[in-house]
Amino acid sequence: MIMSSSWVTAAAVMVFGVTMGTATVQAASPEPIQPIKAAKVGDPALVELGKKLYFEPRLSKSGFISCNSCHNLSMGGTDNLKTSIGHNWQKGPINAPTVLNSSMNLAQFWDGRAKDLQAQAGGPIANPGEMAFTHQLAVEVLTSIPAYQAEFKKVFKKDTLDIEQVTKAIAAFEETLVTPNSRFDKWLKGDKKAITADELAGYQLFKNSGCVACHNGPAVGGNSFQKMGVVAPYKASSPAEGRMAVTGKDADRFNFKVPTLRNVELTYPYFHDGEAATLTQAVDIMGRLQLGKQFTADENAKIVAFLKTLTGEQPKFALPILPPSTDATPRPRPFE
């Protein structure tokens, strides 16, 4: 971010090449933001298996950490911490972005090092600072549990179980975690009473100030990499260098994936280092550092009001009942 599970705008007006007056924006069609569509489940059995694995703490060395630990689906798909807590209470290096609507991202992780959700899903399992396991041990744990063996065989039509199947199933479940029917989506679809006058004024400010240059599309972000600190430098508390860590190019230093603003009301704190505790702080910092604009208190409040209309319907499902370990299942080692 750039707002963590949340806000980043780059040199917005420059991207458009013109200063956008209210009349110009209103004349534009369609709007720069589009409604989110409900998820379509193509393979229910694969998704159900992925749901179990998403909540499965035995994929970690401690037997305590699951995907849901850092991407809590009861908390907007994140953990509401500046940086996540890993194995043995290790402090993570970066803020956990929301998993909600993450299938709309052009890539995964802040620096985009994973091309898609399946590539991302295997990373935390083997990361010593996160789940601290190995892919081999994760497969051994699942293979030792007959109920998992049977479910994997039913879904994948194979006698053997591997990490590719694990990550494919997790990704399939995550693809269902979309949040349609926000109040703003209803407004986009024609219900002009779905948002208030102040919220609409906030959206006009959001557009006219240039925020939509980077925060656009159905996810209101997630579809480009931008530099954090365009007009003025951002002093980060995180050592993360953004895209440079992937490309090796100095020009990509401090370029991060633009976060989605969907459900941003729920995904505090903000930016890749989690330094902005509130939306009010995030809007102020983004205005000054990305756009060179000092929002008044009233303008800031209206933009924040608009951002809160982006909270959609949260995923609803029955919590999975995980199969019990057997005598052959490797035991967790939480204190090593």
Label this structure with key terms:
336 residues; mainly alpha; Cytochrome Bc1 Complex, Chain D, domain 2; 3 domains; two-stranded antiparallel sheet; 13 helices; 34% helix; oxidoreductase; transport; iron; metal ion binding
Could you give a quick summary of the protein structure above?
The protein has three domains: 1-30, no CATH class; 44-174, Orthogonal Bundle (Cytochrome Bc1 Complex, Chain D, domain 2), CATH 1.10.760; 181-308, Cytochrome c-like domain (Cytochrome Bc1 Complex, Chain D, domain 2, Orthogonal Bundle).
What is the fold's blueprint, element by element?
Blueprint (H helix, E strand, L loop, with lengths): L11 H5 L5 H6 L16 H11 L12 H4 L46 H10 L8 H9 L2 H11 L6 H12 L8 H6 L8 H12 L16 E3 L16 H4 L7 E3 L21 H13 L5 H12 L28
Antiparallel strand pairs: 1-2
Pfam families: CCP_MauG, Cytochrom_C
Organism: Vitreoscilla filiformis
InterPro entries: Cyt_c-like_dom, Cyt_c-like_dom_sf, Cytochrome_c_Peroxidase/MauG, Di-haem_cyt_c_peroxidsae, MauG/Cytc_peroxidase
